[in-house]
């Protein structure tokens, strides 16, 4: 059982899942996660979180954002991840219950592996002809992490609906 409440996950999912899909799409197409998507994700938490979470938990979740943002800035400065990825992680962090962090890390690892393999298979197959102008097909070793990051948040919330406390 996850620590996120099924109620909170149910409140968040209808608003967050389309953003996650958009992030995955734009990152594959442009190798870019837009600031507008990240701000919209944060705005969803600010508005929906006030209704979905107890007030004290709602306020504490902003510390998740701050910690993730500082870590993301450091990782971006070190050249380990893109700025859009770092900002998406920071905007997504308040949606995650701290008690689910271990589960989330395992889910992220599985999502990265699945996204990487599916992207590389699509890139090398005829599927890439469906969207020949996507930058991710010809980006060399660069990989659109938005696929894995958006997928992780979406799967976490859906899993939270089913197995949340």
UniProtKB/TrEMBL annotation:
Q: Which parts pass through the membrane?
A: 6-25, 37-55, 61-83, 103-122, 142-163
Annotated ranges, domain Prepilin type IV endopeptidase peptidase:
16-117
What does the record give under GO molecular function?
aspartic-type endopeptidase activity
Query: Does the record carry Protein transport as a key word?
Result: no
Report the GO terms under cellular component.
membrane
Alphabetically ordered keywords of this record: Membrane, Transmembrane, Transmembrane helix
> Could you identify this protein by its name?
Prepilin peptidase CpaA
Source species:
Salipiger thiooxidans
């Amino acid at each position: 059982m996850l620590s996120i409440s099924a109620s909170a996950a149910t409140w968040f999912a209808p608003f967050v899942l389309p953003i996650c899909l958009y992030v995955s799409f734009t990152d594959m197409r442009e190798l870019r996660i837009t600031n507008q998507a990240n701000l919209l994700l944060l705005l969803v938490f600010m508005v929906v979180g006030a209704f979905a979470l107890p007030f004290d938990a709602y306020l504490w979740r902003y510390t998740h954002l701050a910690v993730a943002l500082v870590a993301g800035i450091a990782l971006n400065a070190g050249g380990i991840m893109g700025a859009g990825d770092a900002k998406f992680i920071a905007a997504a962090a308040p949606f995650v219950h701290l008690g689910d962090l271990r589960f989330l890390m395992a889910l992220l690892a599985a999502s990265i592996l699945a996204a990487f393999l599916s992207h590389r298979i699509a890139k090398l197959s005829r599927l890439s002809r469906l969207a020949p102008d996507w930058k991710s097909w010809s980006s060399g070793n660069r990989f659109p992490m938005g696929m894995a990051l958006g997928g992780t948040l979406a799967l976490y919330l859906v899993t939270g609906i089913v197995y949340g406390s």
